[in-house]
Amino acid sequence: MTDVKSEPPAAGAQPREEWTGQVGFILAAIGSAVGLGNIWRFPGVAYENGGGAFLIPYLVALITAGIPILFLDYAIGHRFRGSAPTAFRRLGGRARRWTESLGWFQVAIAFVIGLYYTAVIAWALSYFVFSFDLRWGDDPAGFLTGEYLQVADPGFSLDFVPGVLLPLALVWVAAIVVLALGVAKGLQRVNVVFLPLLVVAFMILVVRALFLDGAAEGLNALFTPNWAALGDPNVWIAAYSQIFFSLSIAFGIMITYASYRKRRSNLTGPGLVVAFANSSFEILAGIGVFATLGFFAYQQNVAVSELEGLTGVGLSFITFPAIVSEMPGGPIFGILFFGSLVMAGFTSLISVLQVVSAAVQEKFALTPRGAAVGVGVVSAILSILLFSTTTGLLALDVADQWANNIGIVASAVLATILVVWVLRKGPELRYHLNAVSTFQVGRIWVLLVGVLAPVILAYMLIQRIVTLIVDGYADMPAWYLGVVGWGTIAFIVVAAIVLPMFRWRRSPDDFAAWPPYPPSGEKPATARKGAAS
């Protein structure tokens, strides 16, 4: 299918930015989906939820929820040609003020995630440098929380940690520059360079890990199936949760990215490529991580099941440095691992920030560069104040829990119910996907998006809210969780209510979706033929 030029811009409007073609869009979308969670979350989740058997619910979740919601985001962004607030406003018709709020809800989530996600990339950048001389020594855990992050008790501190502040500032400068260069010259070019580099670096890392002593035991620990786990509902919820969080869906990224595709562009085919490429990288990450953990268990003369720190910050910044210190050629392995973290994190970060930049640009009629610099500078200041201090690690941990497990999941539940049941837009969006795409979606797609996805996600949301209220989180004081955790959700809700009240500098409502729906005497097959010309 050949991309053609889009419609001319409205009078007084800037020409809409676009990807240069399908390959650029696919690489950018994969770059967004492949992030830190692929490397440090999937292997541990799979291991703890049935090992090899986990791949069954994982694939079911990918097909029944991940890909359908990814298509939903693509359809909304591409048909209504805007950032999340613009697209949802146009989608809503007469209810546009309320639907715009959902768009700002997603933008606020992206804003919060951008603030702390940058800090993790800064840590990875620091550890990339530390790998050259194994600076963490014989006590990686003590080095991380003591010498490097200088972690204090829960609270709010302005005691800045120079070792974090400098790389954090560098990451923000790089992110602002990329955003200011625009969609094609900034985001696309970074992904065209970083994504192949990431794959090559990680492949070298995996091949090296496979030849370590004990690698086979690590892979057996990961892939040996525990079939009994398939009878546990929590294993299935874990699968849907992993797919949901790893595909960059339901918080504005794919809506924004799809809006930069030309009017006549294939959507579902590239969507399948993005989804399966993301899952392939997760499985590759699982192989690399557990082959390495097998070596570590062999060196410690223990079973893999006896190791600690198999996910998240503990895996990346405590367990892996300890492994690097013990393995032959450790510094090179550390350089590859932390370099991969930096590249995977950065391509995801710029997609998150683009959600905010695009929304501000359209709401206030700014240039892409002006919006990027404005959003970037404000975000950088807040990020440095919150996450380069001695209390940064704790604030990051709590904000991440609430923004991801409550904010994003709530956004998905609201979006699916709003689109399918309240606005009844499922058939129109299905028609749009089929009118421009090679891979056709049937009525089952509307049922998956409108029934299965919201039911499972609502269960996840309620379960997590109850757990956080009853049990708290990580033995942290209730007042701290209230301020940082629930305060994050309060900020997101307030932003969703207040921002639609601001006047649009250039009205987004003078807009006609293409192709027209319902089609006047034209069958979807005819539209598809025209789309392919």
TrEMBL record:
Residue span of region Disordered: 512-533
Membrane topology: Multi-pass membrane protein
Subcellular location: Membrane
Organism whose genome encodes this protein: Microbacterium lacus
Statement: the UniProt record of this protein carries the keyword Hydrolase: no
UniProt-listed NCBIfam families: Na_transp
Family matches, as SUPFAM superfamilies: SNF-like (SSF161070)
Record-given protein name: Sodium-dependent transporter
Keywords: Membrane, Transmembrane, Transmembrane helix, Transport
Transmembrane intervals: 23-42, 54-76, 104-130, 164-183, 190-211, 235-260, 272-298, 332-360, 372-396, 402-423, 444-466, 478-499
Signal peptide location: none
PROSITE patterns (alphabetical): NA_NEUROTRAN_SYMP_3 (PS50267)
